[in-house]
Design a protein that fits this description.
The complex is a heterotrimer of chains A (237), B (185) and C (253).
Chain A (H helix, E strand, L loop, with lengths): L5 E4 L7 E5 L9 E5 L5 E6 L4 E6 L5 E7 L2 E5 L8 E7 L3 E5 L6 E4 L5 E4 L5 E6 L3 E4 L5 E5 L7 E7 L2 E5 L5 E7 L4 E3 L4 E2 L12 E2 L5 E5 L5 E8 L2 E5 L2
Parallel strand pairs in A: 3-7, 3-9, 4-8, 4-10, 9-11, 10-12, 11-13, 12-14, 13-15, 14-16, 15-22, 16-23, 17-22, 18-23
Antiparallel strand pairs in A: 1-6, 2-5, 5-8, 6-7, 17-21, 18-20, 19-21
Chain B lengths: L4 H9 L6 H20 L2 H17 L10 H18 L6 H4 L13 H14 L2 H12 L4 H8 L3 H22 L11
Helix pairs in contact in B: 2-3, 2-4, 2-7, 3-4, 4-8, 6-9, 7-9, 8-9
Chain C lengths: L2 H12 L5 H13 L1 H17 L9 H14 L7 H14 L13 H22 L5 H11 L7 H13 L3 H11 L6 H13 L3 H13 L6 H8 L6 H18 L1
Helix pairs in contact in C: 1-2, 2-3, 5-6, 6-7, 6-8, 7-9, 8-9, 8-10, 9-11, 10-11, 11-13, 12-13
The chains are: A mainly beta (237), B mainly alpha (185), C mainly alpha (253).
Amino acid sequence: MSKAAALLAFSAAGVWAQVTAEFSDPSRPGTVRIERARGGVTISGAAIKNVRVLSRNRAEEPISIRESGNVLTIDDNGRGNDGDLVLQVPFATSAVVKTVNSGTIRIENLEGEIEASNVNGHILLHGVKGAVVADTVNGKIVAALERADPKPMSFITANGELDVTFPANLKATLRMKADNGDIYTEFEVTIRNEQSRVQNKRGQWRSETVTIGQVNGGGPEIRLQTLNGKIYIRKGR
Amino acid sequence: MAASDEELMAEVRAGEVRQLGALFDRHHAALFRYSMRMTGRRERSEDLVQEIFFRMLRYRETYRDGHLFVTWMFRIARNAYIDQARKGRFEIVGKEVAEPSIMPGNEIEDEQELALLRQALAKLPDAQRELLVLARFEQMPYDQIADLLDIEVGTVKTRVHRAIKNLRDVFFDLTGGTHALRTSS
Amino acid sequence: MPCEHLRDSLADYLAGALRAGEAKAVEAHLAVCEDCRSAVRVWQRLGDLSNLAEETPRRAMRSRFDEMLRRETRPPMRWQPWAMAAGLLIAGFLGGRFAVPTPATERGGEVAALRSEVRNLREAVIVSMLRQDSATERLKGIQTTATLDRPDSEVVAALIDTLRRDRNVNVRLAAVDALKRFASEPAVRRGFTESLAAADSPLVQIALIDALVESRDGQAAETLRRLESDDSVDNLVRQRAQLAVERLKARHE
């Protein structure tokens, strides 16, 4: 695909339509940016050079795909529908995904950075290796990170739980806040801030304000925050 | 004094896109009413209003000085509706609501009468329904409608006349032809 | 007058665009023509239909519009040429750590000048980090501001700009926390209030409400009250706003 904008009109209802898009420099890791007003997005890493875009739209829907400077932008121009958009991308790709309604964001087996924003829907990340910045309003975030990228990260939702698994060798400063819920962790966390009222009973905290704690001596800050929901911080391998 | 629609739109075109927010506050309700009557569905109407403002922003360069903002806005609204309708995404509620059973001679309640009138409106051809929505709901003067639809003022009047009588006939069909309309309060 | 000839004037009559004399002529026809009379009644009832409350749009439409506007108008984020140079110079210096070593002893003006230069350079790096395309880089920029005890106004202004315009909710939320330290500055409190009026994320809204209460900003009361009475706003946020109004009032009495 050239740098010029391409317009795809996906055809009949219920049928998968597929198109292949190329990064201008496949030798370097690229970025996919997806912006939808509606509908889910699934991205999985694969041993491929190009990007495969599959769409299962219920109605005809023009989606524009542009490529510039190794950034592939897929945009539904604020329209969108309930169909899922499915992408297969090279492992090293970074992803910036945004949707608003009626859809879950799923990302798996990706080595690049991930920025995922939803409003009414979940965010599910599995087998990812890059730094994660994720937010939703009504939905949960479940993330399993395979590598502790030493960079700031952030996981926030308003109504839903956070369930995040980090590798055992994580070095980070956790900034945790669950206004109406408990926080559970399998890590040894050294609580640093004095002003928060923290009850520590069998690995469980209830935080009225923010709780800041260090894991393995501390490091870049990782924010974990929800208004209504519990927070689970699990220790992976 | 508050800036006119035309002044605000000129600012939007010049890059002060935040001013579109003021135009949204002023006109989104009217566009929503228009969309409700054209699509018959709340969710579709909200989508359509969003699309209309998206197009106003994206095509802001096409707004010309000296033109009424409202006419330009409704021109965009019509095109947006036509584009969406062409994709077959809209259904009109009136077409799927069961025919009401009115016994001859029964008194029809005020609300029921308006519900029937809404159904009758939904059964009109798109062009007639649109014309009545603009002329009656939005109270747009005939010369503005003429400008918007790109037809003569006289043609607008003839079509309003025809549309209102057609609406009356469809309404009477729905009520079994026996009901005399209430006088407006 | 036969109905056919009445076409235009009936339409004008309906729109209320006839002069008294012309209107009288139409009314004379209406008195004898049931066909036209019923058309007039349909027109009148159509007016009643347009006044029905169910045609009112929901308030949530405004936040969807704001989101669209933000998406369409966010400035492209790029490295400034000067910032790029500064970034290269200092990249090894900052690395993944967030503390810059300070000399153990003062050795006169030369060292002081050097430190101030480094400080300015570091601030330039922070400002440029806040403009990065990567959200985690922007978070890093915000976290780095915590290592400065008194950042210059450019850094604070860049943080306020991030709070107002950053496309990512996580980054805006982090900006609120970082800015709390500087809440004694009126520009920061103004940034809080303005962002609160425009915010759509409940977490950012609550963080801003808490920040305003902590900074005892009495001028925020009106914004808080509007939030409290807006039924399109999340219930928890409205409760928090109500509490905030009371706490601010108690402090100012």
